[in-house]
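Q: What structure does this chain adopt?
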Amino acid sequence: MSTPYVLILFYSRHGSVSEMAKYIARGVNSVNNIEAKVRQVPPVSEISEATADPIPTDGAPYATLDELTDCAGLALGSPSYFGAMAAPLKHFIDQTSTIWMTGGLIDKPACAFTSASSMHGGHEQCLQSMMTPLLHHGMIWAGLPYKHKALINTVTGGTPYGASHLATATSENTLSKDEISLCEAQGKRIAELAIKLAN
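A:
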């Protein structure tokens, strides 16, 4: 029997969301009897006929719908574009109607993570934009409780809706100590919930 996994599924344009995914995976992998599976989605083209190579030139492999269906839990990540998830991630989610029709994600835990370039650049609204389709799938949303002191102390990213990163122009991919702590906490929480809900 294969080990259950949390699918860490993201789109990252400049690398900060990809960096967050690594720490969320570390949190998942700190829990026994479950593992992290890190996957990305390809960019979408402004030219409708253009397609991406099936294997990305760098970073995590591209996700498949089967990997989404078979996950025990989901962590969804995107940069915040005008307070919403990026188009490539939305495009991938828009292809999941067959999973919705069969109830493949019902009662599985989900969370989200994001990065924005200003303190009020839509961190929380972007997380909520990712939450909405997952609620339609019947998933159970898991934010970050305030028992994590980094959530109270952070002066960079971090919200009770999910982990976030404040990406400045000079250090786009450099996560603060609090942001790293919250990413790891979020990964650990989603893994623990996935095991509890599966049982």
